[in-house]
Amino acid sequence: MVRPAVAIVVTMLCVWGWSEHGAAQEPVDELSLFAMMTLPAGTDSRLPGPVAPAVRGAVLPSMYATLIGLQAYDGYSTNQGLNRGASESNAILNAVTKYPAAVWAVKGGAAFASIYAAERLWRRHRRGQAIAVMAMSTGIMAVVAANNAAILRSQR
Asked: In which domain, by residue range, is 12 found?
């Protein structure tokens, strides 16, 4: 249980380190950071006058949370199935399954890549495409999670 937690913490630190404002040299207060994160790309929140943050609906963040949950369940169920004698059906991930921490790293990386792509699309005003990317990613992971659950049930 310690290794997945360490892998998740390391992944999150890497994600925060890659952020655009993570390496900023000047201090940023909370309000301007919020404005920079919510304004459309190319807008400067430090311009004079009141800043109205862009409104983001709940659809995309809820899809992010769902995808992260499905990836976490997939990592857990994959490791449980392998411990019970099942084999990985994905030939590409078969080499990674020897190391549980590597499975968690791959799951975290896959979730990050999907969320990053959707977020980039959203900020470039391609909101329909961002939602479509997340819908496809979440749908694929839902099928994988259902398959893993069926395999775990059959192993009991």
From this structure: 2-155
pLDDT digits (tens, 9 = 90+) for 26-83: 555 555 545 555 555 555 555 555 544 556 678 899 999 999 999 999 999 998 998 8
Residue among 130, 141, 121 nearest 60 (CA):
130
21: left (phi over 0), alpha (psi -120 to 50) or beta: alpha
- Token pair belonging to 47: 């311009």
Longest dimension (CA), the chain: 64
Q: For residues 75 and 35, give the distance between their C-alpha atoms in angstroms, rounded to a whole number.
A: 35
Contact yes or no for 130/121 (Cβ under 8 A): yes
- Both tokens of 77, joined, read 């169920």
Count of the separate structural domains present in the chain? 1
**56 vs 51: CA distance, rounded Å:** 15
